Amino acid sequence: MPLFKTPDQLMALGQDLMLRGDFSSSKNKYEDAAEKYRVAGNPQMAVVAHAYAQLMALGAAAPGVTEYAAAAQALSPLGDYPLKLGPRQVPASTLAREAGLLAEQSSLAKSTPHTPADWSDVARRNQALSMEFRQLGNQNLLLPELFRHETMNPAQLAPSAAARAEEAMGEAVVLDHPKEAAEHNENARNWWAQAGDLMRAQEAANRVQLYGRSARCWFCGREVTGEGVQYVLFASDIGPWSSVDSGAGLGSVDPSRGSILACRGCASAIDRIADQHAIERAKEVEVKLEAEIQRLEEQIRRIPR
Ligand SMILES: [Zn+2]
What we know:
This protein is mostly helical. The protein folds into 2 domains: 164 residues, no CATH class; 87 residues, no CATH class. Helices cover 66% and strands 9% of the residues. The strands form 3 sheets. The chain has a 3-stranded antiparallel sheet with strand order 5-7-6. The longest helix is centred in the C-terminal third of the chain and has 39 residues. The radius of gyration is 31 Å and the shape is flat. The protein starts with 6 loop residues before the first helix and ends with a helix. The structure holds zinc ion. The site of zinc ion has 8 residues, from β7 and α12.
């Protein structure tokens, strides 16, 4: 065997290492092959070798947005060119599509929406993802299976993404329209049940309950909807005297939880007053401590050495 391998030989070595599950070494061989094809003036094969290298990167370490996006990008110029992955031949376009969807899924999992506009965007992207997964049918995704021994079925991923879309739609409107948010979470509950995720289905059901609840503020008497949204609970000494409500209709007391119900406006005003008191109290303590420290320092100085 000659010391310097031809790019074709490097490609064969890459396949061999891939079959043995050594994706990291395989990736290096494909990268070397790509470089040699480039130098030899064979840009087409350089693209093929580079695509293989990016695929192997999915097996080398836990892949995230960067790895999946890089694989999708490397595969996309190849169209339906057949790639050899062990005993299978798979069109590059199939793998490119999967890598693109997995990149989007990882990106969504990492996103940290804050504003209603952020949540609307997350909802829209999850809806699109759900649609794409639905189009893939019932075949397990190849990339997770080949490189991570993971089973990911689009028929299950589709309802999960749809559930996340509904939850995000709920978050986008919850402050202004908690009842609408409750409806979105009811839809989410259905999707999670369809995806077989009973824990998340239960969480969505809990939000339906919370967002659907209404109360009358103990302090100002305003009618508010959505527990933890438009109103909160304050632990309070309630007794028979407080159970007589101000009027008919919505309650201001929750005896089972020893709490009164306060609208967000009243609750935040009370919180701020409490914060101010706490800060003043802390300052008083600080002043006393400083005086004490000075007194001690003075005593230490007087100790004869
Ligand atoms: Zn109030």
